[in-house]
What we know:
By secondary structure, this protein is an all-alpha fold. The chain is built from 11 helices and no strands. The protein has helices at 12-26, 43-55, 60-72, 90-102, 110-121, 130-137, 170-185, 213-229, 233-249, 261-273, 281-292.
Amino acid sequence: MTAPLAQPIVSPAGRALERGRDRLLAIQHERGFWKAELETNVTMEAEDLLLREFLGIRDDGILRDTAAWIRSRQGEDGGWAIFHGGPPDLSATIEAYTALRVAGDSADALHMQRAAALARELGGIERSRVFTRIWLAMFGQWPWERLPALPPEVILFPSWFPLNIYDFASWARQTIVPLTVVASHRPQRSLGFALDELKTGLWSREQQSLATWAGRFQALDRALHVYEKHPVGPLRRQALALCAEWILKRQEADGCWGGIQPPWVYSIMALNLLGYSLDHPALRAGLDALETFAIRE
Length: 297
């Protein structure tokens, strides 16, 4: 005679797994995919406003709503974090502050004074990340000479050559290639105001020993800066043409690049700097696609 089968024991973890499964099935689109908000930090919203300012396509409604969202994420310390509940981040604070200035917030407003004071305390623009300083350079708020050299000629490197673009991850190379185009043009748009209140005046670049990789990259950067002053004309033109072709080939069917913000916005700016008008199908699709990724509350 066999013993009766024991009832299965459902653990709390098992019940949680079942609830998770049921929830995922409940929110699945009828065509089989899932779509939901991907929340990140305010640099995305800030850079969206800066992109529109750069291209001269300011939209008062978007400006107002985006600025309100950025203000709502400001911490009690005056700064902005890069993750929920995190400490204030210098670069995020600088970008959010700049976007709010674009939106019309006065530097004398209390929330702006608190943000500027915190930015200076954390090291100011001089200590911010490279990407933040690139954005500021595009608006004349930081010298291009104090940024890493990014010659578009890297597009010509074969796949076996060190530091060719395919040495980098897909999302990274889709960011690097358009950035080289932007850096080669060194654009400077006017914000209509300066950001001196975010600077400490303390800028230094510690020289590293050539015995270290950091020192070798510094030496390479110095050499590239020399080249940037006198690029070889035919080589530069060929590189820029190849960059444009490379960027256009990697635009997604929905108009974006990689489905993420960095390669997307830099690709739009790069093509525009290369002479593509905002009415060009690629740029029109890219700008229209930005709206499909927007969530308005």
